[in-house]
């Protein structure tokens, strides 16, 4: 658990740094829609499915970018271990508009289904958990 907190804290620090570097560029994006939503998604990889889940996280990002659903920057993806050698991932990014996840295209929903199949409940937590967060300046 301590290792996971350290990874989450590191993710927040890295994300804050990325935000400060990209904030001025993203504010000038004329195509931006109001009310973006930054999320932290944690995935507990099923044993033996770590590489597949990592590929799905990368594919999700590629498809979301192609469909213009997310802001290009900042984005942080982390890999950590807990309970010995159990792998988990943390993905932090910003949806272009907070309404997008509720009306996600079928192509994205299909990826979500695959991600859920590759994740497992662990330590009293679901295989995949999501939290909306607010960006703060450092």
3D architecture notes:
Strand 2 (76-82) and strand 3 (86-95) form a beta hairpin. It is built from 3 helices and 4 strands; from the N terminus they run αβαββαβ. The protein has one domain (2-133): Alpha-Beta Plaits (2-Layer Sandwich). The longest helix has 26 residues, at 2-27. Helix 2 runs antiparallel to helix 3 (106-118). The chain is 41% helix and 22% strand. It has a 4-stranded antiparallel β-sheet with strand order 2-3-1-4, sandwiched between helices. By secondary structure, it is an alpha+beta fold.
Keywords:
138 residues, alpha+beta, Alpha-Beta Plaits, 3 helices
Short structural description:
This protein is of the alpha+beta class. Helix content is 41%, strand content 22%.
């Amino acid at each position: 658990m301590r290792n996971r907190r350290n990874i989450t804290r590191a993710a927040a620090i890295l994300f804050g740094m990325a935000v400060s570097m990209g904030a001025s560029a993203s504010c000038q994006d004329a195509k931006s829609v109001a009310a973006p939503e930054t999320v932290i998604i944690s995935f507990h990889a099923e044993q033996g499915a770590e590489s597949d889940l990592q590929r799905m996280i990368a594919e999700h990002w590629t498809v979301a970018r192609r469909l213009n659903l997310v802001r290009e920057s900042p984005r942080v993806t982390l890999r950590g271990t807990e309970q010995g050698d159990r792998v988990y991932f943390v993905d932090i990014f910003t949806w272009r508009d907070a309404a997008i996840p509720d009306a996600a295209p079928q192509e994205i929903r299909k990826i979500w289904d695959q991600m859920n199949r590759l994740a497992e409940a662990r330590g009293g937590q679901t295989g995949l958990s999501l939290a909306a967060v607010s960006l703060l300046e450092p």
